[in-house]
Amino acid sequence: MVRGAYYEGMNAWIRVCKAIFYCVTAILGRRIFLGGEQLQRPGGILLVGNHISHLDPVYNAVFVRKSGRWPHFMAKSSLWKVPVVGKALTGTQQIPVERNVGAGQEVLAAAIASMEQGKVVVIYPEGTITRDPEFWPMKPKAGVALLALSGDITVLPMATWGTQRVFVPYIKKGKFKPFPRKDITVKIGEPLDLSAYQGKPIDSRAIRDVSFLIMGAVKDLVAELRTEPAPAGFFMPPRPPKPAAKAPVRPLADPGVSDSHQ
Predict the structure, then answer these.
(1) How far apart are CA 71 and CA 87, in angstroms?
(2) Which of 17, 19, 77, 114 has the fewest CB atoms in 10 Å of its CB?
(3) CA angle 140, 145, 150 (to 5 degrees)
(4) Which tens digits make up the pLDDT trace of 51-84?
(5) What is the arrangement of strands in the sheet containing 182-188, beginning at the earlier edge strand?
């Protein structure tokens, strides 16, 4: 893969992570990276991907770096509390995502600031590893549309396939299956055309339409890697049942008082 003119520099933390990630990804699977030239352009980029395994960010990071850029992932803030991992995330300038109510605007502002500085921000709009039994993308969250419409940035869809066979999500035993060695394919598609929405009010309908447009492009790339047609729509995991309402508790009658009048 040829490095582009926009190759970004490295600090100590990036050098360490690069060395570890390059080795790990080479050992765990045969890397097949397609479309890296799409990252070799100036300005901020929003890279939008599907999420099928805990290994996705590792392979995606190596792909982005081999394309001449450095990824800035939007990741759950609890990872910053893990010893060493938290320091590495800070040192490599990743973006913590707080899950508490009211923190959304701060997270979006941090991601937008990164793109305004010409960086590559990576987001998985599903917010978690897909719960679809066939590993198709789930319904996207609104944040991806708000980022995509935040300014003059390039929005690129990205599809990953094969990581779910190496590190299988949502099972307790036998989830790590590095052998036999498997193909891990990552492909980046062409920039998405969002011109019809630029400069217009960002209302709930626009957010929904743009979110679905972007995730639809990701789903189509996944279908291309899988060489099978994509399902219509997006998977939505069932909501957990609401707890049954408790029956009102009647106060105990005073044993010294009769319910009947004599």
Answers:
(1) 16
(2) 19
(3) 155
(4) 999 999 999 999 999 999 999 999 889 999 999 9
(5) 29-34, 182-188, 154-161, 45-49, 120-123, 71-76, 95-97
